[in-house]
Write a structure and sequence with these properties.
5-stranded antiparallel beta sheet; 20 helices
């Protein structure tokens, strides 16, 4: 403990401590509150908070006093103490006007790199972003996700605010759990309230289904929208009887669900919450008419959306470039942006990572009022690091990804052709690293993270998972720099 005693003495004296022996110091993580100074360190494979001094912060931190200092674990109890003394570490809502980027972190190691990407840029980072699917596959909790975001941002000396997104939540219980933990954004997944059959249904069946709706529901929608024209910048939106019927049948359940969740869980929370609506889980692109109907009807019912995610033209598959006609995307995206502007919320783009060809249009056509979600691309940069630095470990990672792909694809829609991929033992070290940019390889690795880390997703990391995590953590500076450049490329193309 002699090295820690010396570091604590220097911290208390206001000296900038340096790493000693087996103890690694993070100088950017020095903060003061009253007569207490704190610093994050790494020792014997464990990250800890070192506190020196006296006063309320020192007394409230968990841990045992040793010669006038404390070592606190980087866990939920410590985070909550820091939240009270440093309010900037609490997740905050971005509001409807700021550009935002959602930065998923499947390992709990990506926040420092994400901070390096967003620092000095005009964009609000959502550093904690996780869906229930990702939590289940990684075996993490919302508390763990917030811990990583809070401690990681403090480690980088970042105190400009960040968001926390309970992503793609489907139930009121999950939403309440995220809000109780302190999350500042909820993305409502409405996929279970969509009837995709309506997208391709013939006219006669459409009429029959519509006639079965309660007369009061049909009358209410028809009085508000039938035969009327609605102007948005650069476009005119109108509903003939059949188009209105199709939109109502497809989205009325979504509208009812969103209204109920908003009033029961969001508006009653007692604090500002970014409320995003996801209607992108359809096979066909969201029409301007459908987007307008959902937005107008929710506004009529007193629901204040922060952002909305339609299903855009083209394919936004996981981990790969946009697939589709970029000019057509731009034309249709402009109308969606105009609808969002009319109702005052941001347009949200899901699975936005690595869609470099359309990012300039997203930034320009929204005038910077967008929210872009990324997730698996930060995981893939960790895999890239392993491929470049530890090829023998990567061969095992890649082999497990191939073996588990059919099981993993139950959770994600991807088009990877596994039959075309070579086995890892047939590739040279150079070919392994270069293969990270192959689209099928990226998708196989992207969706197999739970199996790579755990063998069977949801439990504690197995041997391969522990080796993977240790290797990335051992190269934390390299990983952070790689993420800073990779996410930074997205932001530059967005005009940030």
């Amino acid at each position: 403990m002699d090295d820690i005693r010396r570091i604590a003495d220097e911290l208390l004296l206001g000296v900038r401590p340096a790493s000693r022996g087996q103890t690694r110091v993070y100088p950017s993580s020095i903060y003061s509150a009253g007569d207490t100074r704190i610093l994050q360190i790494w020792r014997s494979g464990e990250r800890l908070l070192l506190a020196a001094g006296r006063g309320p912060l020192f007394e409230e931190l968990p841990g045992t006093k040793i010669d006038g200092f404390k070592l606190a674990p980087l866990e939920g109890m410590t985070r909550r103490v820091l939240n009270r003394h440093f309010p900037q570490t609490l997740p905050a809502a971005a509001g409807r006007s700021k550009s935002g980027i959602g930065l998923g972190d499947r390992l709990g190691l990506a926040t420092p790199g994400h901070i390096r990407a967003v620092r000095d840029r005009d964009i609000f980072p959502v550093l904690a972003q996780q869906s229930m699917r990702e939590l289940n596959l990684t075996g993490r909790t919302y508390s763990d996700v917030l811990n990583s975001a809070c401690f990681g941002s403090m480690r980088e000396g970042y105190m400009l605010g960040f968001g926390a997104d309970g992503d793609h939540l489907k139930s009121g219980e999950d939403i309440s759990a995220a809000l109780e933990e302190g999350f500042s954004m909820i993305t409502l997944d409405c996929s279970e309230h969509l009837d995709p059959e309506m997208e391709s249904m013939g006219m006669s069946e459409l009429k029959r289904r519509y006639a079965k709706l309660p007369q009061s529901v049909r009358r209410d929608y028809e009085m508000a929208y039938a035969g009327k024209e609605f102007l948005v910048e650069g476009a005119e939106i109108s509903f003939d009887k059949m188009e209105l019927a199709r939109c109502i049948l497809l989205y009325s359940g979504v509208i009812d669900f969103a209204e109920r969740v908003y009033h029961e869980r969001i508006a009653s929370s007692g604090r500002d919450i970014d409320f995003e609506l996801s209607i992108d889980e359809t096979t066909a692109p969201t029409s301007p008419e459908a987007h307008y109907l959902v937005a107008a009807e929710l506004a009529r019912r007193g629901v204040r959306l922060t952002s909305l995610a339609p299903r855009f033209y083209g394919e936004f598959q996981k981990g790969v470039e946009y697939r589709g006609d970029t000019e057509r995307f731009g034309r249709e995206f402009a109308v969606h942006a105009a609808v969002a502007d009319k109702f005052g919320y941001r347009l949200s783009v899901h699975s936005g990572s690595d869609k470099f060809s359309v990012l300039p249009a997203v930034g320009e056509l929204t005038n910077g009022r967008f929210h872009l979600k990324t997730a698996g691309t930060s995981w893939l940069e960790a895999v890239r690091l392993i491929a470049g630095k530890y090829p023998s470990l990567y061969r095992r990672v890649y082999a497990r990804a191939l073996e588990s792909f059919n099981e993993a694809r139950r959770f994600y829609r991807v088009s990877a052709e596994v039959s075309s991929l070579r086995r890892p033992d047939s590739l040279s070290d150079e070919e392994l690293a270069a293969g990270i940019d192959d689209e099928s390889t990226r998708q196989v690795l992207h969706i197999s993270y739970g199996f790579i880390l755990h063998g069977e997703p949801g439990g504690r990391p197995d041997t391969l998972g522990r080796e993977f995590l240790a290797a990335v953590e051992g190269e934390e500076e390299l990983y952070s720099d790689m993420l800073g450049r990779h996410i930074g490329k997205h932001l530059e193309l967005l005009g940030k």
